[in-house]
Amino acid sequence: MSDGKQSILVFGATGQQGGSVATALLKAGWPVRALVRNPASSKSVALRNAGVELVEGTFAHTDVIRAAMNGVHGVFSVQPSSPGGVVSDEDEVCFGAAIADLSVETGVKHIVYTSSNAVGDQLTGMGHFDSKARIEAHIGALPITATIIRPATFMEMLVMPGFGLDEGRFNFFAKPDQRIQLLAVEDIGKFVAAIFADPVRFGGKTLEIASDTVTGRDLEAQFTEAAGRPITYARFSDEVLEANHFLRKLTELLDEGRLAGKADLDALREITPDLQSFRSWLAGSGREAFREALGTAGAWAYGHA
Ligand SMILES: NC(=O)c1ccc[n+]([C@@H]2O[C@H](COP(=O)([O-])OP(=O)(O)OC[C@H]3O[C@@H](n4cnc5c(N)ncnc54)[C@H](OP(=O)(O)O)[C@@H]3O)[C@@H](O)[C@H]2O)c1
């Protein structure tokens, strides 16, 4: 039921973050409109079957986006970024800025933009984080109620092939005793639904979001428990970090505390009480992907970046 609410326009609804947001907004009773590139794709069809109004277009179709914003209350803005090799950092900034500009032009009441927890007062030197800092700054200068969310590392990232799970080990950025915050993608939508429900509380705010804090040793214990066989943990070796600039930069940011996350989980639970711990995620919605990773060899997608 829409309760007389105006729509929210969701970008990237066939992807991780937008999909989570579309699901949570529908659950909260918002009519949801989504810009999709291919309305015939299985994910688009699933969205339509769930009640989402589909508009065909891409980030480059300014006129389509402008028309799609007609009469909407809010916009959820997410863009793909450079490490996946699909867009450049410049593209990401252009798309993010254009969506914000069009939101102002069409009288959207509230925009929620999803950034990254690595974004802060200083640039990181990594294109896909600094692009988000630029989009944040652009939105901050516009006359619109805006909320920035800064998500932690997605739990889903940890079960992508290439981190060694198929070989009974797990290599990641953190040292064994180092803390890193994680976020279940499913929880992103819950935060965004809470934000759209209370623009007075969240308008003009930047909210770092996470679901759990773990160390490398926690990951070892929780992966071992979930797999039913030993999974050992170690940080990426010096050789790997030496050979891979992308991984090395991420590891440096973690060591500097800029990627570790500093979200206040207790305060976040007051917004979204049922945040998923990594353990509960592994046993629940992450279970299938974890099982698949245990049986899948391969290099991480950005292994040669
Ligand atoms: N914190 C983390 O651990 C973490 C992890 C991964 C990503 N991220 C960040 O999250 C952002 C990406 O979000 P995501 O993971 O939700 O993305 P995703 O799952 O890769 O989905 C991307 C979405 O954008 C759509 N899209 C791509 N190019 C488009 C275009 N030209 N026009 C219109 N729509 C387009 C895709 O549609 P189609 O279905 O048509 O492809 C899809 O819906 C990136 O900026 C990245 O840096 C953060």
Describe it.
- The chain contains 14 helices and twelve strands.
- It has 305 residues and is of the alpha/beta class.
- It has a domain of 144 residues: Rossmann fold (3-Layer(aba) Sandwich), CATH 3.40.50.
- α1 packs across α7 and α4 packs parallel to α5.
- NADP nicotinamide-adenine-dinucleotide phosphate binds next to α1 and β7.
Short key terms for the protein model shown above:
single chain, 305 residues, alpha/beta, Rossmann fold, 7-stranded parallel β-sheet, 3-stranded mixed β-sheet, 12 strands, binds NADP nicotinamide-adenine-dinucleotide phosphate, NADP, NmrA-like_oxidored, NAD(P)-bd_dom_sf, NmrA-like
Write the layout of secondary structure elements.
Elements: E1 8-10, H1 16-27, E2 32-36, H2 42-49, E3 53-56, H3 62-68, E4 74-77, H4 89-105, E5 110-114, H5 127-140, E6 145-151, E7 153-154, H6 155-158, E8 169-172, E9 179-183, H7 185-197, H8 199-202, E10 206-209, E11 212-215, H9 216-227, E12 232-235, H10 238-243, H11 245-255, H12 265-271, H13 278-283, H14 287-294
Parallel strand pairs: 1-2, 1-4, 2-3, 4-5, 5-6, 6-10, 7-9, 8-12
Antiparallel strand pairs: 9-11
Helix pairs in contact: 1-7, 4-5
This protein binds NADP nicotinamide-adenine-dinucleotide phosphate.
NADP nicotinamide-adenine-dinucleotide phosphate binds next to helix 1 and strand 7.
By secondary-structure content and strand pairing, the structural class works out as alpha/beta
Strand content: 15-25%
Extract low-pLDDT stretches: none
For this structure, the quaternary state is: single chain
Order of helices and strands: EHEHEHEHEHEEHEEHHEEHEHHHHH
Q: Tell me the CATH superfamily of the domain at 8-151.
A: NAD(P)-binding Rossmann-like Domain
Tally of DSSP helical segments: 14
Q: In CATH, what is the class of the domain at 8-151?
A: Alpha Beta
Report the count of strand segments: 12
Which term fits the overall shape?
globular
Cα-to-Cα separation, first versus last residue: 46 Å
Proportion of residues in helical segments: 40-55%
